[in-house]
Automatic annotation (TrEMBL), chain A:
Name of the protein: Aminotransferase class I/classII large domain-containing protein
UniProt KW Cytoplasm keyword: no
PANTHER family: AMINOTRANSFERASE CLASS I_CLASSII DOMAIN-CONTAINING PROTEIN, BIFUNCTIONAL ASPARTATE AMINOTRANSFERASE AND GLUTAMATE/ASPARTATE-PREPHENATE AMINOTRANSFERASE-RELATED
GO molecular function list: 1-aminocyclopropane-1-carboxylate synthase activity; pyridoxal phosphate binding; transaminase activity
Entries under Gene3D superfamilies matching the protein: Aspartate Aminotransferase, domain 1, Type I PLP-dependent aspartate aminotransferase-like (Major domain)
Keywords: Pyridoxal phosphate
Lineage, uppermost ranks: Eukaryota, Viridiplantae, Streptophyta, Embryophyta, Tracheophyta
Residue ranges annotated for the Aminotransferase class I/classII large domain, each copy included: 49-428
KW Ribonucleoprotein (keyword) present: no
A Pfam family the protein falls into: Aminotran_1_2
Similarity annotation: Belongs to the class-I pyridoxal-phosphate-dependent aminotransferase family.
From TrEMBL, chain B:
Keyword Transcription regulation: no
Region listing for Disordered, in residue ranges: 1-25, 66-94
Biased composition (Basic and acidic residues): 10-19
A Gene Ontology BP annotation from the UniProt entry: amino acid metabolic process
Keywords, in A-Z order: Membrane, Pyridoxal phosphate, Transmembrane, Transmembrane helix
Source species taxonomy: Eukaryota, Viridiplantae, Streptophyta, Embryophyta, Tracheophyta
Aminotransferase class I/classII large domain boundaries: 153-532
Annotated Polar residues bias: 74-89
InterPro entries: Aminotransferase_I/II_large, Ethylene_sulfur-biosynth, PyrdxlP-dep_Trfase, PyrdxlP-dep_Trfase_major, PyrdxlP-dep_Trfase_small
The protein's name in its UniProt record: Aminotransferase class I/classII large domain-containing protein
Length: 438, 540
């Protein structure tokens, strides 16, 4: 009870003043630099190019074409069905047609290798909300979730801020391409135990952010076994599942469960969203898919705090249930992302930079450790500052992703035009040339 | 007068014992032992200090549990009981305890199903209050004049269908262009990418203008002081997170909107202290009652962080007058606490009384502005709950900054914002809508009240909202919550009418019911009256 009543200032809560939102970290500092001096193809060619935002802009035209040709998705004309149910008190179940469309879309992405029941889908306003919600449901304040490093910097905020849950990292390294091993998981678990933290679950992102690579089948099996063994939950954030460069390389935890006859499924929960695969982060569409009835019921009730606009659900239900559109979109989007990836890898290689072999996502995991003065976090941050301020590229330093090896950077390639990407690659090339000379 | 708490037997405490999330005898034994083992300062201090703490805690808990006026305890109605008793709040302040508690009590690993958190495990078993049960029944068997004349008529949901036709017509004409183009070329790239989570500035400007309009231009709202959220529900929760810590409390006048129990308390661990309003004062807020509740809380060691008022109020439909609002501000200043003013029905006033926003009360130069926060939304006044648009309006820069960041978990959808920018900028439409809507609300209100009056059911004079607050205490078998719920049950299952019993709203006097009229047509009213008449059997 620190605040005295005599003081004129009326106090705020610990949550409100906490720094757990993490917006003071380099990950976000780079964004600020971009906001102050954003690159523009014509009007600001010396500005900072944003390569720190994992946004997919490569397939807008497909969306636009659909909306142009299908006015019923965005309107409520005389012919448009179900307006009353749309605008009126839509409860936390969400539109059945939309849940069905999401279930189908998720099945399509997985090539039909897993089935999804629309009644197990809980809708949230974005995956950020979905992850936070699951954390509230699966863990109590003071408990811990195990997360493989490197991981999406936003997790520090999304999973911990209001929930008071801890993250204990599962350290992965470049010696085996950052794959998750049983030894690493066990070490993390022991580490949590030694800190007196009760581990409630393990959260994986598959395909991984920031690695840009899918998790292999054997690893998934091991992760599930680990969760069963410790009797904890497994959350699989599959937000990039539709952004794999080839349809066959992504294996969802749902497929693993399918082959096991859904034994041990009640501890598995999948998070999905349309922000990455469909490039619609502004629509705020996320889902939790859980095989656990209790979790579904609770999540549904809790989703009252983060419902998706019925108008948005209606629009997307129309779009996603159009098989022609969705099949073509998935296929074309994959091809374009793959092309972009090849482009950036080639460009970086020409500049003498290696990347982790990736097969998914909107970014690549770049290795600049040879450039570090010392193999330390400080050197990485110094290099990051140079790249931000001199090369004028905002990329994400591995330390903000909790990578245990300094020198790795995440570079996004899908949130800009091809021309801009060329410019960025040129700048990198120039920078590397300069360094060689010095 | 005592209330038999019909639902007290369904308190979450038994669940807590099982999951080990809150109180429990086993915990009290383990705690001091843990302290001994881990205590610094040697075995002696290591045993004395934890034991002293333990006994102090025990004494404290015993005091609280025996409090006869138990209304102020974690007001867990069965709908969304929090499993956190006040005792668990104190436990979290002693860091070693909860962790060892949960580890010690949960079943050993590898046995039994994987558990969910204690903070929500109670919810799964709850959710069966009359409020939610009634809504479910209507969904299963909804009345329709032609297709289902024996279905359940909905008077339990505060939504407004009366003016939906106006909105529908506007959307039919304008929606498509509005979502994508706003007059410009069709552009997905305008709405698809990441937007500021707290809303597009253009949309804030439109909403600020709308808020001003519905409040008769008595006050103007600055868009830069707004945070938009996916509905008013997260707006309330976010403010709760920002203004209070776990274990703190808000004073809330009763009867209040049942959803507050979820919005204010569930994930935040914040308590609600009931401040009873009585029929003798037409359920108006009394500052004396606020003061009493504040002092009682203080004695119990509960830190009050603010007052939450709803104006117009739900379920009564009262407006708070200027004088009361000034007195409320004085009270808040004196206690150095916040005021959350839920003004979501400001545009749904009817009748002659003047609506005064808290924004008007707070002077331009007044430093007390920092303690005032207004919640608004488009669900009620614009009949668009499905679109999920809520507003936090605050004069406090720090709250603004925190709420902005938290809005990422509950952001409004971009295409919806674009659609509404168009709609709200259509000043002719908005003006017509507000006026017509008010007229229709007034008409329905008058008819409903008259119909009830004919059966000897009096209502509190209401000037806002979609409902009337009616006294049916003359018709309940026993003057208690049990009697009230029995009548509710008869009305639902025999009369096939879903109304909200006052106990769901924590009304201190049994027998009051909320009747929502904005989901009805004029033709429905006589049908409703007939059905109610069927059920009523006057009791002395």
């Amino acid at each position: 009870m620190a605040i005295e009543i005599e003081q004129p200032r009326v106090g705020l809560s610990k949550v409100a003043v906490s720094k757990t939102h993490g917006e003071d970290s380099p990950y976000f500092a780079g964004w600020k630099a971009y906001d102050e001096n954003p690159y523009h193809e014509t009007s600001n060619q010396s500005g900072v190019i944003q390569m720190g935002l994992a946004e997919n802009q490569v397939s807008f035209d497909l969306l636009e074409k659909y909306l142009e040709e299908h006015s019923e998705a965005s309107s409520w004309g005389k012919g448009a069905p179900g307006f009353r149910e749309n605008a009126l008190f839509q409860d936390y179940h969400g539109l059945k047609s939309f849940r069905q469309a999401m279930a189908n879309f998720m099945e399509q992405i997985r090539g039909g290798r897993a089935k999804f029941d629309p009644d197990r889908i809980v809708l949230t306003a974005g995956a950020t909300a979905a992850n936070e919600l699951l954390t509230f449901i699966l863990a109590d304040p003071g408990d811990a979730l195990l997360i493989p490093t490197p991981y999406y910097p936003g997790f520090d905020r999304d999973l911990r801020w209001r929930t008071s849950v801890n993250i204990v990292p599962i350290h992965c390294g470049s010696s085996n391409n950052f794959q998750i091993t049983p030894e690493a998981m066990e070490a993390a678990y022991q580490s949590a135990e030694s800190m007196n933290l009760k581990v409630r679950g393990i959260l994986i992102t598959n395909p991984s952010n920031p690695l840009g690579a899918t998790i292999q089948r054997s690893a998934l099996e091991q992760i599930l076994d680990f969760a069963v063994n410790k009797n904890i939950h497994l959350v699989s954030d599959e937000i990039y599942s539709g952004s794999t460069f080839s349809s066959s390389e992504f294996i969802s935890i749902a497929e693993i469960l399918e082959t096991r006859g859904y034994k041990d499924a009640e501890r598995v929960h999948i998070v999905y969203s349309l922000s990455k695969d469909l490039g619609l982060p502004g629509f705020r569409v996320g889902t939790i898919y859980s095989y656990n009835d209790q979790v579904v019921t609770t999540a549904r009730r809790m989703s009252s705090f983060t419902l998706i606009s019925s108008q948005t659900q209606h629009l997307l239900a129309c779009m996603l249930s159009n098989k022609e559109f969705s099949e073509n979109y998935i296929k074309t989007n994959r091809e374009r992302l793959s092309k972009r990836y090849d482009m950036i890898i080639k460009g970086l290689k020409k500049a003498g930079i290696e990347c982790l072999k990736g097969n998914a996502g909107l970014f690549c995991w770049m290795n600049l450790s040879p450039l570090l003065e010392k193999p330390m976090r400080e050197s990485e941050l110094a290099l990051w500052k140079v790249i931000l301020n001199e090369v004028k590229l905002n990329i994400s330093p591995g330390s903000s992703c909790h990578c245990s090896e300094p020198g790795w950077f995440r570079v996004c390639f899908a949130n800009m035009s091809e021309q801009t990407l060329e410019i960025a690659l040129e700048r990198i090339h120039k920078f590397m040339e300069q360094r060689k000379r010095n | 007068m005592t209330q038999t708490r019909y639902y007290r037997t369904r308190s979450p405490e038994p669940e807590k014992e099982k999951t080990g999330g809150g109180g429990g005898t086993a915990m009290r034994v383990i705690v001091p032992l843990q302290g001994v083992v881990q205590g610094r300062g040697g075995l002696v201090l290591g045993s004395i200090i934890p034991c002293a703490l333990f006994y102090f805690l025990q004494f404290y808990l015993k005091r609280n549990r025996d409090d006869p006026d138990d209304k102020n305890e974690s007001n867990s109605t069965s709908q969304n009981p929090t499993t956190r008793s006040p005792s668990s709040e104190h436990l979290t302040e002693l860091p070693g305890l909860t962790r060892s508690l949960s580890r010690a009590l949960l079943s050993p690993r590898n046995s039994g199903p994987v558990s969910i958190s204690a903070r929500v495990s109670g919810i799964v078993k709850g959710g069966d209050s009359p409020y939610y049960m009634g809504l479910k029944r209507v969904k299963e068997d909804p009345y329709d004049e032609l297709d289902n004349p024996n279905g359940v008529i909905q008077l339990g949901l505060a939504e407004n269908k009366l003016s939906l036709d106006l909105v529908k017509d506007w959307l039919a004409e304008n929606a498509r262009e509005a979502i994508l183009g706003n007059g410009k070329e069709l552009s997905v790239s305008g709405i698809a990418p990441y937007q500021p989570f707290d809303g597009l500035m253009e949309f804030k400007v439109a909403v600020a203008g709308f808020m001003s309009q519905v409040m008769e231009n008595a006050v103007s709202f600055n868009p830069s002081q707004m945070v938009l959220t996916a509905g008013a529900t997260p707006a309330i929760e976010i403010l709760s997170f920002c203004l209070a810590d776990t274990g703190n409390a808000f004073l809330v006048p009763t009867p209040y909107y049942p959803g507050f129990d979820r919005d204010v308390k569930w994930r935040t661990g914040v308590e609600i202290i009931h401040v009873p309003c009585r029929s003798a004062e037409n359920f108006h807020l009394s500052i004396a009652a606020l003061d009493r509740s504040f002092n009682q809380a203080k004695k119990r060691g509960l830190k009050v962080r603010g007052v939450i008022i709803s104006n117009p109020s739900n379920p009564v439909g009262n407006l708070l007058n200027r004088e009361t609002l000034y007195s409320l501000l004085d009270f808040a200043r004196e206690k150095n606490i916040h005021i959350i003013s839920n003004e979501i029905l400001a545009g749904s006033t009817h009748g002659n009384e003047e609506f005064v926003s808290m924004a008007e009360i707070v002077d331009q130069e007044d430093t007390d502005r920092k303690r005032v926060h207004i919640v608004y939304g488009l669900s009620k006044d614009l009949s668009l709950p499905g679109f999920q648009v809520g507003v936090i309006y605050t004069f406090n820069e720090d709250v603004l900054a925190a709420a902005r960041k938290l809005s990422r978990f509950s952001a409004t959808s971009a295409p919806t914002q674009c659609l509404l920018i168009s709609m709200l900028s259509d000043t002719k439409f908005v003006r017509t809508f507000i006026t017509t809507n008010r007229e229709r609300l007034q008409r329905m209100y008058v008819q409903l009240v008259a119909g009830l009056e004919k059966m000897g059911i009096k209502s509190i004079k209401s000037s806002g909202g979609f409902y009337c607050w009616a006294d049916m205490s003359g018709f309940i078998s026993s003057y208690s919550e049990k009697g009230e719920v029995e009548l509710w049950d008869k009305l639902l299952n025999i009369g096939k009418v879903n109304v909200t019993p006052g106990s769901c709203c924590h009304c201190i006097e049994p027998g009051w019911f909320r009747f929502c009229f904005a989901t009805l047509t004029e033709k429905d009213i006589p049908v409703v009256m007939e059905r109610i008449q069927k059920v009523l059997k006057p009791v002395n």
